[in-house]
Amino acid sequence: MTQGDEGISGTALRKREAFLQMMEDCKSRKIDVIYTKSVSRFGRNTVDALESIRTLMEYNVNVIFEKEHIESMKVEGELLLTVLMALSQNESKQQSDNVKWGIRRRYERGEIQSIPLGTLQGYDKNEDGNLVINEKEAEIIRHIYDLYLKGYGRYRISQILEDEGIPSNQGHTKWSWSTVEKILRNEKYRGDMLCQKTYSTNYLTKKKKKNMGELPQYYIENTHPEIIDKRIWDVVKLMHERDKKYEKAHYLNSCHRDTEQLPLIGKMVCKQCGYTFVRRKYKKAKLQHQYYWCCGSFYKNIERHPDKYSITDERPTQLFVEAWNKLLRKKVRYSKVPANVLEEYRREELEELFKQGPLQMFNYERMLQTLDHMEIGEDGYADIYFYAGTMVRVKI
Ligand SMILES: [Zn+2]
């Protein structure tokens, strides 16, 4: 029997050697039982600890956790894993700080040789294993962020990239909206790193699993050079959250398409039920080949729409022009301070665009960049909301 606890504190790197020695001793059967204060003593994090414990079990070494009252040899493998996972959630703040600090120090000393790169576009690894910007690929990343802030949806961006013949990762020419989304959401472009996005459930399957909160995640800033300005990255993050919320609230598919042919599709919302408007063809013979817009759920949900209301095909784009010019004339455009960095960014952008004066005719790019949505209802008014966090009301 051996008191193994003292030599294996995972957070103290200088004791690492003693720990490895102990593992060697276990392998050569010099040790058959290890008493330890807590699971956390077995590694820098739970994944590490589980790996070590699994190895010890293979050597037939019994591990007794005093604090948790568990004996590894008495518990079924699967159950032990479950128990240890649960315990890991109680890891003290002290310990997680130590882990964070440890990773940061190791990074500073250049000991982290492997920021997982995978198929990440925009970076290469230098001979020390650190991430360095690949300028050619970084241009693509900046282009994607730029298009997104100009109001193009994720699906539309994937189409634009294909049309421009821009290669995606591994040289493919196909782009999907979800690839675009992943790029927009990746913190590495901000120069940061989120650790333990996935973890290995090695005890049972050795497969990678997405970390849905089973293990702590550590967010470390400034681990490598950024490709996207930090403020812009934060703006895009909020914009993406806004889009998700908007799609959910208005029953839109997350790969819904924006198109120049139907510029306001997805942007017109029914005041009565929250559905977006659809374009329909008149059935009457004399109006054939003519279109109008009405609520997409009108026929499914007649009780919420006592009066059928619709607008003519050309009216939506006119409404935007009228709203733009009305907002431009307003002396006080915003009633409160910006809610966040996204709204602040959108206000600066809008004021910059207003310098170009009123709109004479509809401008698709302008609309895409500035219009949040318009709400249309039986009251005969369109409430037109801008990304900058302000609204104007226009008569339909
Ligand atoms: Zn409706």
TrEMBL record:
Record-level Gene Ontology MF annotations:
DNA binding; DNA strand exchange activity
Q: Which Gene3D superfamilies match?
A: Putative Large Serine Recombinase, Chain B, Domain 2, Resolvase, N-terminal catalytic domain
What range(s) does the Resolvase/invertase-type recombinase catalytic domain occupy? 1-110
Q: Which residues form a coiled coil?
A: none
Domain annotation Recombinase: ranges: 120-246
Could you tell me which CDD domains the record lists for this protein?
A: Ser_Recombinase
Q: What is this protein called?
A: Recombinase family protein
Please give the organism. Variimorphobacter saccharofermentans
